[in-house]
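Assess this one:

_____
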Amino acid sequence: MLTIRDAREEDWERWDSYVLSHGSGGPYHLSAWHHSVRKAYGHACRSVLAEDHDGAIRGILPLILIRPPLIRGSLVSQPFCDYGGILADDQEATGCLIAHVGRLVRERGLHFEIRSRVPDEMLDRHAFRSTSNKARMVLELPGSAETLWNSLKSKLRSQIRRPLKEGMEFQMGTGELLDEFYGVFCRNMHNLGSPVHSRKWIQAVLDFFGGTSKVGIVKYGGKSVAGGVIIGCRDTVSLPWASTMREYNHLSPNMLLYWGFLEHACNNGFRYFDFGRSTPDEGTYSFKRQWGAEPHALYWYRERADTHQGYVQTGGMARAMLERVWSRLPLGVANTVGPLIRGYISL
């Protein structure tokens, strides 16, 4: 018999130990992600765990409740990242966790979304529908940066050397580089027509993940022209955010940025580099494939119920129009209003 209950403050150390010992555990399952969301955006953590009669954890389901003003809320596992989902010892624990949360969302009229890195037959049985049009791009790393460099095609090595010849340099750090990264991030998201995350969110991730998170930037003439954030977890380095200044893209600062992160991952003994999600055959997908990254399908599940109709689906034309409008806002206005909106967009 299993007991399903809400995770409490005293559970987080055991929770993290379970994540790190589970073969499918990743950075977004860790309590640091919950704490970062709560501190930056104020969303409530509704994570649950399954325990056996001895009190040992048999499964976990990280959940964040996102409830915009005047709109029905959604339980998401996990927001602002590629995956979260259930980690469990077996199908019994998985089924108990799903059934428990399913009752909760139906009682409270909530939406329910689980983002998983693997398909789950149990979710199919519990009336969820899945989409898998996105893929994580993952590169298996060799034992050294030198071996990785030698494995790259000559054209790719030339693209990495180009920004170096132009006088660009890669720097790795932590919180001291946050402002420089965030300046690039804001400009890039504005150009893309998307509300930007708050600076407080990035700061919270760096604070709660501690030494496992890093900021990398590329500088040109004393100015930051590219930047990204990485998180190390188990044997994998994940890259949740990377941006460049559009006006410098012809000098390929992104090539130096990614090489700097890959070199760091190799030199610190990681086995895999997760470039993040992409849509097959689009530009970012091809960019990541050139490094040797392979696609790993993502499975995003939503409950098949009438309440699912409450999700707002933005069509291609409408989305393109909104992006054009947002990109034309004054940068200062976009940077002020964007974080107020972005915290309610779970993507």
Q: What stands out?
A: The CA atoms of residues 27 and 233 lie 5 Å apart. The chain has two domains: 3-134+299-342, 136-297.
